[in-house]
Amino acid sequence: MSGLPFAFAYAPILLALLALPLIWLLLRVTPPKPKTESFPPTRLLLEISRKEEQPARTPWWLILLRCLMAAALIVALAGPVYKPATEQAPGSGPLLLVVDNGWASAPHWEATVETARRVIGLAEEDGRPMSLLATADGPGQELAPADAAETTRRLEALAPRPYAASYSDLVPTIDAAIRETPFGGLAWLSDGLGGDTNAAFGGYLAEWIDGPMVVYADSATETMALTPPIGGADALNVPVIRDDAGLPAAGFVRATDIKGRSIGDFPFDFPSGEASTEARIDLPVELRNDIARLDIVGAETAGAVQLLDERWRRRRVGLLSGAAADAAQPLLSPLYYIARAVQPFADVQEPRDANATVAVPELIEAGASVIVMADIGTLPADVETAVADWVAEGGTLVRFAGPHLSAATDSLIPARLRQGDRALGGSLTWQEEQPLASFSETSPFAGMTVPEDVLIKRQVLAEPDGDLTERTWAALDDGTPLVTAAQSGRGWLVLFHVTADTSWSNLPLSGAFVEMLRRVVAFSSAARTQTSADGQSAATIAPYRLLDGYGRFVPPGAEARPLPASATTIVPGPQHPPGLYGTEEGFRSLNLLDETATLARFDPASVPDATVQPYPSEAPTDLRPWLLAAALALFLLDALAVLWLNGMLNLRRRGPAVAAMLAIGFVVVAAASTVGPAVADEASDQFAIDAVSETRLAYVITGNGEIDAASEAGLSGLSRVLAERSALEPGSPVGVDPGRDELTFFPLLYWPIDPDSDLPTSATMARVDAYMRQGGTVLFDTRDQLERSSNLNTFSGTPAVERLRDMLANLDVPPLEPVPVDHVLTKAFYLLNDFPGRYSGGPLWVEAVEANQGRSDRPAQPGDGVSSILITGNDLAAAWAMNAAGDLLYATIPSDPLQREMAFRTGVNIVMYTLTGNYKADQVHVPALLERLGQ
């Protein structure tokens, strides 16, 4: 029996099946009820049957029917389950439930939560307390054993985090809990990723958990992620990694801009046995510079996202040299080494004229982000002023030393220099050639490996002062600066104290030279994000738009902290989630994975003596409803059989009674198929009567209780304002299901977009399309203005907007535009310039009037000049929402009574616009009205 796909919640009840033979015997010896006949005797003679008399015992088939009915009831009471889950709450005593809620858990989070619920239920049946540990929530979690209700509450509050679990940080928390309450079993719901820290954590649990352990790991799902892209001269190469190097796999990387608009999908292909590959983005430089986000299509995790900031933009670098040009010997030119070092990640521009008075303005006008001057000592006064202004506005000036600079210089240097230069390692010097010793931790060079083969044999020296150490980015072994830098306005002055050629050092021949220039160019753009409007360097960079565990943009939470502006290497975590930091004018991206990241699949051997099993792919099926329905059907058959045996089914004598009994039986057996439609039809009729009895506003029921309550309260508040301020007295708002309810009764349909709701079917959207063609107006509200850039003049990039785009994909939606200044909506009742709701700043989109002229093929033509579709993100319903007492339910953001009033005026104008059309745009009678006013 253990091999069958069945289980019973109360198996001992099945012992009642042993009583079935006794029931058979009792029913067999019990005769049926005697047949009653009416008097007089003559009538009795007419009813004498010529057939065999009724048996003295109950027929065998009726006994079998009743035994089957009893068996169905007994089995139903035993709680049968088809394909029961194999989970068990391991061990005895307090149970430790470990849930991986890092970014890799997002694809199978629902299965994780469902499995955790079943484990909690099994522990509850045994009366065991349990503790819940979320591995991505860090140390300090409460691990005191609690009951099932409290553990379930904590489980429901969990969500995938946009960073990885930090197993080593959890050890002190578990140690403290074990000292208080030893755990007698463990259930670990893994996210499927392994690695050294994962294996160490598994070994730790196996050592300290006093009882059996069960580990759930999803071995069927392959996890993919992106590491930082690598910019090349002709393409952007995006590394893609996976946790399984087995079978071949392929996919696409999608590139989008900061507004969420798709730039393109680029394929990648994993050969068999390879755990990494690349997607090549071959686009013109202008399009490449627009890329702000890279995603693996279909992989909804934070690890499958790479955000690009100014550091990944291919910048224009202007080169200017003070050395004499020698075309016959290009290797002697200092610009030769600089140009080849920056060409892989920047566009190099050399001026046509060697005259600095002409060349410098040419580079500035061409949009150079960085200007590199090799051995230029003194600039003309007007050129020096122009460069100083350019740096103050955010440019970066990089200078290399040389004979000219060591002889004389201007003010565009980060530190005062001594006259002349310092020679090292010659026959007339006392000192040896100096190697590099260190890079400053607050410089762009932080984290670089100090090259051992670079030797400096000549340099210019800086005058020592109290700030020299802070301005030193790289130093030699004797402590003298190799690279110094200082901020000037919003820009930077950077000085290499050696030449850009090989005459003073072999630095230009090393890979460190390329990396140092690459970081300086990247820093030149990122520095703008770290600089305030007054030109002062910002100490921190505030969170702007962060990622959740599914890789979606969300507003910063309470735990998020600003990034230190000077930090170059930050590990994402609870205080610094991956995302964008700064402002929309300039931001810095923090990504989950760096270029050294790899993915490893969970190794069952990492948890010794543990039982490893996959997440259940199919939920158990409760058979009790089916067995109870079968018992009811058998009961009805038994009743009909008894009626037949007692002559109650004689159609000639008892036709009406028999028909009534049959009708009752038919109704009971087929209640779901007959009563349902009748009730539905009655409800539909009442719905139509209520809708046409008075003008009502309608909203779409999304299934999200909070959103639907806000919609109902919002339209109720707007209806109250309409009754107070206009001649319209609307009734109570109506919630509708566009796939079932008739929409033509309503002039305006408010549709809040819930990104987590199911996508409407094509049949539903066809009904909406017909409603729009017949003159109805749908107001879509994505309610996501806070998640979007304040000056964003398009609808894209947020989950709600993407869901709306998917909904409208099969409709021939006309071109849209923000409400023009002369549109009827700006003067339908009030004179309005913008259309705020709970949020402000987002435009209200309507059909472009010019696009409708001369078109007859579009399914949703505007009736009487009324746009069939309106779109906003300002959350209008929340701004209108009132309770029965007239109290406002939601605060506007920012809290401004004027914004609330303008939101109500927006609602009044929209309703008047949908009811009256374009009468306010009629200018025919304006002269006559003006003439009458003049009289």
From TrEMBL:
Q: Which residues form the DUF4159 domain?
A: 696-915
The UniProt entry, under Pfam families, shows: BatA, DUF4159
Cite the Aerotolerance regulator N-terminal domain residue spans from the record.
6-80
Sections of the chain in a coiled coil:
none
Tell me if Transmembrane helix is a UniProt keyword of this record. Answer: yes
Q: Which UniProt keywords apply?
A: Membrane, Transmembrane, Transmembrane helix
Determine if Transmembrane helix is one of this entry's keywords: yes
Output the InterPro entries linked to this UniProt entry: Aerotolerance_reg_N, Class_I_gatase-like, Double_TM_dom, DUF4159
Record-linked CDD domains: A4_beta-galactosidase_middle_domain
Membrane-crossing ranges are 6-27, 60-82, 626-645, 657-680
Q: State the NCBIfam families in the record.
A: two_anch (TIGR02226)
Q: Report what the protein is called.
A: N-terminal double-transmembrane domain-containing protein
